C-alpha cells in the first residue's frame, strides 16, 4: 500500500511542477504499440482482481506515466486507459456505498485512500484532455497533425462526471471527517468542472453543462463549496465573456433542482455593490466588464425572474451606474419584472403598486443622456404592449413621451418612437365597437352616455316621500275609479223608482256634497303646484340600480380615454409626416 501519497501535496505538485516526479516512472515516448498494450494489460489484470490494488505503487505509477506523457500518445491508448480507470473506480464507489449503508467503519480508511487515488487519476486525465483540446486549435493551424489534436473526448468527459456525481451523492462526511481533507478531495472534481467553461465549445454543450451543474450543485449544497463557487463565478464573469450565460444557468439549476437560493442571492448582492464603467473609459482595466455582467443578468432574469425580483431592491442601484450598458440592462430587467408581476396581478392587488413604481422608473429614463438607454426603454415598451394586461393609464403616459421624442436628436430613438406609436395603435384596448378609431363616432357615443347619465338616478338618491307618493298615486287612482262607478249605479236606481220630495232634498244635499268635494280637489291641485321643482326633476328621471349607474360612469371614462388617445395620435401625425423626408433610412 502506498502510504506516502498525500492528496493536497500531490495536487499542488501537479499544478506547480512542469516535470511531475513519479518514483516508478516509465518513459513512454517512442514506445511501440506492443509495449503500450502490455502495460495496459498489466494494469487491467491487477485492478480487475480488486479495485483496491490501485494502491500498489507499481500499478499506480504506471498509470501516472501514461498521464504524464499524455501528449505523446495516440488517443486510442488513452481512451482505453480511461475505460480501465473508470471501470475500477465505479467498482470502488459501489463497494464504498455498500459499506456506508452497513456502517462498516473499519473499512472507511481504506476506501478513503483508494478513492483519493482514483480521484487524482481522474482529475489529471480531465485536465490533460482540456489542456490538449485547447492547444489543439493552435497546433492545428500550424500543421496537419490529427490524432490527439482532433479526437473528440466529449463521451469520456460525460462518463467521468457521471461517475463523480454518483460518488458525491454518498455521505462522504463519514469518510472524510476533517473539513480541509474533504475539501481537497472535492476540489478534484470541481476544478476540471470550472475549467470546462473556459472553452466556448463546452459552454454551448447542454450535455456537458448538465453534468457539470450537477457536480457543482452537490458540492455547493452538501460540501461547503458556496464561497469557492461564488469567487469562481465572479472571476469567470470578469475574464470570460462566453461564461456569462452558463453561470446564470448554473444558478438557476441550484434554485430549481437543488432548492438552493443562497448562492444566487450572494452573487447578486456582490454585483449590486460593484462599480461599472464604460468600455471606453480609461479606468476600465480595474473595473468589472459590464458587457459580461449584463449578459449574465439578462439570462438570469429570463430563466428565473423571481430570483431577480427578490433582490431587486439591491440591483436597482445600478440604474445610477456610470456604465450605460448596466443602465440599459436594468431597464430591460424592469420590463421582465413588470411581465412577471402582471401574471398574478388579479390575485394580488398589492403588486400593482410595485408595477407602477417600475413604470415610473422607465418613464424617468426616457430622459437618459445616452440615446441607447432611451432606445432600450422604447424596446421594453414594445414588449409590454403584447401583455394581456393593457395598463391604459401607462399607455397614455408613453404616448405623451412618444410625442415628445418624435423630435429626439437621435434618429434611432425616433425610429423606435414610430414603432411604439404603431404598436400602440395595433394593440389599443378600445375594441368595443370593432376597434375603429374614428373620433367623430366616439364623441357621439360619449354624448349619448352623458345624456343617459344625466337623466338617470338611483333609488338611494331619491327622497323617501317621493317613492311613497308614487305608490299613493297609484292607490288613489284605483279608489277614484271605484267611486265613479258606484255613483253611476245610484243615479240609475233613483230615476227608475221616481223621485219624492224627500228624495229631492237628499238630491240637493248630494249636489252640495259634490261641490265641497270639487273644492277639496282644487285645493290639492294648488298644494301640488307648490312642491319644489327639484322633486319634479327627480320624479322625471329614470330610476336605475347603483350597479348600472356605475357601469355607465366607467363607460364614460373608457370613451374619454379613447378620445384622448385618438387626439394624441392625430397630434403626432404632422410630425411623422415631416419625418418622411428624413435622410435616415430607418425613419
Automatic annotation (TrEMBL):
Region (Disordered): 473-539
An example Gene Ontology CC term for this record: condensed chromosome, centromeric region
SUPFAM superfamilies for the chain: ARM repeat
Domain Condensin complex subunit 1 N-terminal: 77-229
InterPro entries in the cross-refs: ARM-type_fold (IPR016024), CND1/NCAPD3 (IPR026971), Condensin_cplx_su1_N (IPR024324)
GO BP terms, alphabetized: meiotic chromosome condensation; mitotic chromosome condensation
Biased composition (Acidic residues): 516-529
Superkingdom of origin: Eukaryota
Extent of Basic and acidic residues compositional bias: 474-495, 501-515, 530-539
GO molecular function: histone binding
Cited PANTHER family: CONDENSIN, CONDENSIN COMPLEX SUBUNIT 1
Full protein name: Condensin complex subunit
Classification of source organism: Eukaryota, Fungi, Fungi incertae sedis, Mucoromycota, Mucoromycotina
